[in-house]
Write a structure and sequence with these properties.
seven-stranded parallel beta sheet, alpha/beta, binds nicotinamide-adenine-dinucleotide, 43% helix, Rossmann fold, binds thymidine-5'-diphosphate, three-stranded mixed beta sheet
Length: 352
């Protein structure tokens, strides 16, 4: 790869995207980072306040489904690589309204692929289309000690995971049909600062703080494999620079938690940091109707990434949870703004 790059990062105002943008802008002053985001309910430029004035950073408000605008952005910024994170990302929303998931995740990804293919042109020297996907495309596991490996067949169950699986297939098809240089990574559940409080961990921290019920789906026995978001961003950095074109890498923390056990750790940590006796908020646990089609267990085997590129998670889970809870408790204003929609005002003030 050449030294100077013009990298389009999509979804950079979202949870994981903002950590990736921050890492690349700070670590690689020689790269131009163009953050393209539609600023849906999940996108928030306040996430990037600390880097918004850096000379190698540009924000562009655009929809990945808008082909003409995407082509113009490739031309205007001479884009040579893409790290694609923009997506609809919440399973519960996909159950209620699957259409927007097909539109953004499938058609949006196809739009970007087509624009990249047309702008770059074969033989695609020094180009890369890096697609960020999820472990949820593999479906679900039993409690049998097995893991998702890269060669596992796709078996998505939710409209969200079906849309991500479909986008992964399009990305691979653009490699196999047109030779577009691509990489796909499938990561486990992320947690950390700047996650929209509809996902389990920030939702529960916020609810405990406000003494509101904690809705546990089913019996709370489903298992997820949790990774601190900065470790994911670090993996993306390594794979972007050293990953093998056309390959898939699984990213995960070997850190499985049954929901109810994780919820108890969150309760203890929030109670302690709020100065209450640990366990006070256990009474907020409320078992509710299970999520439709709820996958039982996710567990990622990231041995390939460790053996081939030397990546491992850097943070112990206890340390990551402590950091995360502290961040949400110290950033109540951020939580209030994203839940009320007030961050849109920030965009109007900064960028219009
Ligand atoms: P997020 O919902 O926090 O952020 C998504 C971002 O995409 C938002 O900023 C939103 O404004 C933007 N966006 C949505 N529709 C758009 C459109 N049409 N055009 C342009 N921008 C648009 O999501 P996240 O949790 O940060 O996830 C980022 C990516 O990582 C997604 O592709 C997701 O599937 C994948 N992923 C997430 C997790 C996780 O645990 N959160 C795990 C594995 C993979
Ligand atoms: P979530 O954060 O939505 O991520 P995903 O569905 O992509 O894994 O949910 C994590 C787990 O927590 C999942 O098993 C569903 C469960 N859950 C609840 O029990 N209650 C809730 O309010 C939420 C949002 C999730």
């Amino acid at each position: 790869m050449s030294k100077n790059r013009n990298i389009l990062i999509t979804g950079g105002a979202g949870f994981i995207g903002s950590h990736v943008v921050r890492l690349f802008v700070n670590k690689y002053p020689q790269y131009n980072i163009i953050n393209l985001d539609a600023l849906t309910y999940a996108g928030n430029l306040e996430n990037l306040k600390d880097i918004e004035n850096k000379p190698n950073y540009t924000f562009v408000k655009a929809d990945i489904c808008d082909y003409d605008t995407i082509v113009k952005i490739f031309n205007d910024y001479k884009i040579d690589s893409v790290i694609h994170l923009a997506a609809e990302s919440h399973v519960d929303r996909s159950i209620k309204d699957p259409f927007i998931f097909a539109k953004t995740n499938v058609l949006g990804t196809l739009t970007l692929l087509q624009a990249a293919k047309e702008y770059w042109q074969a033989p695609y020297k020094d180009n890369l289309f890096y697609h960020i996907s999820t472990d949820e495309v593999y479906g679900t596991l039993e409690f049998d000690g097995t893991f998702f490996t890269e060669d596992r067949k796709y078996e998505p169950h939710s409209p969200y995971s079906a849309s991500k699986a479909s986008s992964d297939h399009f990305v691979r098809a653009f490699h196999d049909t047109y030779g577009l240089p691509i990489i796909i990574t499938n990561c486990s559940n992320n947690y950390g600062p700047y996650q929209f409080p509809e996902k389990l961990i920030p939702l529960f921290i916020n609810n405990i703080r406000h003494n509101k019920p904690l809705p546990v789906y089913g019996k709370g026995e489903n298992v997820r494999d949790w990774l601190f978001v900065e470790d994911h961003a670090r993996a993306i950095d390594i794979i972007f620079h050293k990953g093998k074109v056309a390959d898939t890498y699984n990213i995960g923390g070997f850190n499985e938690w049954k929901n109810i056990d994780l919820i108890k750790v969150i309760i203890k940590t929030v109670d302690r940091l709020l100065g209450k006796p640990e366990g006070t908020s256990l009474s907020l646990i409320t078992y509710v109707t299970d999520r439709a089609g709820h996958d039982l267990r996710y567990a990622i085997d990231s041995t390939k990434l460790k053996n081939e590129l030397g990546w491992e998670p850097s943070l112990q889970f206890e340390e990551g949870i402590e950091k995360t809870v502290k961040w949400y408790l110290e950033n109540q204003q951020w939580l209030d703004n994203v839940t009320s929609g007030d961050y849109q005002v920030y965009y109007e003030r900064m960028y219009k």
